């Protein structure tokens, strides 16, 4: 009697171990680490919404496995991002890490990806060097040198000779400053001054006063997504536009997430970027409509597209490897070529970085709403940071 009980208990134990193992194997886990609170929460909100939209449109099974999206808030603190990544790899055994709202968050996590051989899809951060921080990084956002060089080529042909640059004082800002300046000098323009403002809680006022005194033809700005509205407001309050100083920059300052609330000061601002919600393609129209419908009218910005395309890269790699992980999954991410809401997009197999069009856009009112209207296209732009 006792023996029979023991045996059946053993059977049940074995069976349930087998079942839970089988269940575990049937999951394809995506650890999505984002700033969901704090000053960069809009990036987290946009990317999570885009990832969920992608799953709603493409199903939650891929390569024969059920996709589990695990979303974690890192509050935009690098040590938190790193700790969460470690937990996701060790405890959850995620197939892939994704997200990374700011450069320092991506850089802090890169060693975890390398040590654990976990592909790490960077959907937001945009400093050129991030892809070199780990061979497991694949980027679906953009790079600042891509956008900054395009602007420096547009400037001299459009009546602008003297420029002051103003950037957030960290990776992407320093990339923007360097690549804009070098290219503008090469093109015969002048950079009167390079100004750097703190990343967190910047007070633009003293910097803008300095710009007024220097009287450039234009002020070139990079601030990260979410910070553009404060800059615009202070630019207007100081009467910079009235003083004849044009505002130009990478598209981060006229971010679709907040553009409509910026008011008249944003009207006419020319920027360079890889995505505008008004990009004229059937695929983008479908994407914007579905995103707005699923998110109470929220307009998708370039962060959302980085997240949406990141999910595409992950899903296709999961399909090709039947829900694989590690090096096999990474290999299947490299070289993907597809149409994104931004336009054609390619993951360069050598650099694991994104190759895409950069558009020159002007803010205009369309149907009473402010949009970045694309009027020029530079095709298939690789990261200029990689050839240096
Ligand atoms: C970054 O930290 O790499 C970053 C964040 C926001 C942007 C661009 C770059 O808009």
What does this structure look like?
It is a single chain. Helix 10 (302-320) packs across helix 11. The chain has 388 residues and is α/β, with parallel strands linked by helices. It contains eleven helices and 15 strands. The radius of gyration is 23 Å and the shape is globular. The mean pLDDT is 94. The longest helix is centred in the N-terminal third of the chain and has 24 residues, at 2-25. The protein has helices spanning 2-25, 41-58, 78-90, 103-116, 144-154, 171-186, 205-214, 228-237, 282-294, 302-320, 326-333; strands at 27-34, 61-62, 65-73, 96-99, 120-122, 137-139, 162-168, 190-197, 218-222, 246-250, 270-273, 337-340, 343-347, 354-366, 369-381. The strands form two sheets. Strands 7, 8, 9, 10, 11, 12, 13, 14 and 15 form a nine-stranded mixed beta sheet that branches. P-hydroxybenzoic acid binds at residues 102-103, 124-127, 171-172, 224-225, 252. Residues 102-103, 124-127, 171-172, 224-225, 252 line the site of P-hydroxybenzoic acid (PHB).
Name the overall outline: globular
The SS-based structural class is alpha/beta
The number of E-state strands comes to 15
Attached small molecules: P-hydroxybenzoic acid
The string of secondary-structure elements, in order, is HEHEEHEHEEHEHEHEHEEHHHEEEE
Poorly predicted regions: none
Work out the radius of gyration: 23 Å
Query: Termini distance?
Result: 77 Å
Compute the number of helices. Answer: 11
Main beta sheet: 9 strands, mixed
Helix content estimate: 40-55%
- How much strand content do the residues show? 15-25%
Instruction: Provide the residue-averaged pLDDT.
Output: 94
